[in-house]
Design brief:
about 400 residues; globular; 10-stranded mixed beta sheet; 11 helices; alpha/beta
Length: about 400
């Protein structure tokens, strides 16, 4: 049974209850002060506690979606190795960029009285040609993608990050990005846009902080170069920074800001939901910068704003006045942004560092990022496409600074 299987959770929970009942039933028989009964009491207590903790751990993992499989938990799951590019399966040894589609399913529109498709969600493995790394993901294709009227149209892309640890499934089951995007496109609040839903690490269970680690995982290169090439090789999307935006929560929020500020040629807009502004360094990250203080500084977003020229990108930061530890840091970040970089903010009165808070922010943040992207194909808008609003007409609840 898989790590996230409800059958496994039920099985372990039932075993915990049975073990507890057996412990209560046989405890009087093990009351003698001899070696055998003593070992029996110890064994029953250990078994009961381990099973109880196991059931709690499985329930917590299913709720938070931290690890999707046993290999993910143990760090042995490195994703698929076979790659399909435009129907051709190249050798991974050649470093070919590509996307392997594992499965596909429709996205429910979930608007009462509406008709038509909400688009398609594909489960994929993305293979990078430069880093030779593979990473699981989901790709949301809007309904226009398979509409004959859009046969020659290429689409903008929003990269969506989870936090750490997390799985792409969180972005579907807990945050409902595909359905939110489908509804916004249907209501002409978002131009038809492809979403790529991923976790911000390419070396789980290690937290890479989207960093090219010296002599280690090259996460930054994977997200800023390999991902663009792989998506363009398989889907009708562009590779220019003007065609790409990125959004994420927590660690994913830091990654969204960092990748956009460091690589404006790869991303033109970023939204950070409860993100931070300096890479975490702890037991989950290991050495990220190889002892280089200069490299550490360059990945400190406040240091960049104070010491380096600002890139011509747009960013949205969110926080809460009560419940979020990063509120004051977010205010300092907003104050430090200089032209040509532009910053908007979405500050809630209250809200913790959790899915409930992010779900309140996601619909507006997604539309905000999408409004700042350009479709790769120049010329007149396609039928049914809304006009991007641009920075001059922000959402009423998003404060441009």
């Amino acid at each position: 049974m898989g790590l996230t299987s409800h059958k496994l959770l039920t099985f372990v929970a039932v075993l915990a209850v049975v073990c507890f009942a057996v412990t209560v039933w046989v405890w009087p028989r093990l009351s003698r002060n001899s070696v055998g009964p003593l070992l029996g009491r110890i064994g029953l207590l250990l078994a009961s506690q381990l099973l109880t903790l196991g059931a709690i751990g499985l329930a917590a993992n299913n709720w938070g979606g931290f690890y999707s499989s046993w290999g993910d938990l143990l760090g042995t799951d490195q994703g698929g190795t076979a790659v399909i590019t435009n129907g051709v399966q190249p050798s991974s040894a050649q470093g070919a960029a590509g996307v392997q589609v594992l499965s596909s399913r429709p996205v429910p529109l979930m608007i009462p009285g509406s008709s038509g498709s909400g688009g398609t969600l594909e489960k994929v493995v993305v293979h990078g040609s430069g880093t030779r790394m593979s990473e699981p993901a989901y790709v949301y294709l809007p309904p226009q993608y398979r509409d004959p009227a859009y046969a020659g149209h290429r689409f903008p892309v929003i990269l969506v990050f989870t936090g750490y640890p997390g799985t792409p499934e969180n972005l579907i089951t807990r945050m409902k990005y595909p359905t939110i995007a489908a509804q916004a496109i249907y209501q002409k609040q978002l131009q038809p846009t492809v979403l790529v839903l991923m976790r911000p690490s390419v070396a789980m269970p290690r937290d890479t902080e989207c960093q090219d680690v010296p002599h280690g995982p090259q996460a930054e290169t994977f997200f800023t170069k390999d991902l663009h090439q792989a998506m363009a090789a398989h889907y009708r999307v562009g590779t220019a920074g003007a065609n790409w935006g990125v959004i994420g929560d927590s660690t994913g929020g830091y990654c969204a800001l960092k990748l956009t500020m460091r690589h404006p040629e790869a991303f033109t807009a970023a939204a950070s939901l409860s993100g931070y502004y300096k890479a975490d360094e702890d037991s989950t990250t290991g050495s990220l910068f190889g002892g280089s203080q200069q490299l550490r500084n360059e990945n400190d977003l406040m240091w960049r704003l104070k010491n380096l020229p600002s890139p011509a990108v747009s960013v949205l930061v969110t926080s809460s006045r009560q419940g979020e530890a990063d509120y004051h840091a977010t205010e300092q970040f907003i104050a430090a942004v200089k032209q040509p970089m532009r910053v908007s903010s979405l500050i809630l009165p209250s809200g913790g560092h959790n899915f409930d808070t992010w779900n309140r922010e996601t619909p507006q943040a997604l539309r905000w990022v999408g409004a700042r992207l350009q479709a790769p194909q120049p010329g007149a808008p396609q039928p049914g496409s809304p006009q991007p609003s641009g920075d001059a007409t922000p959402s009423p609840v998003i404060k441009p600074s």
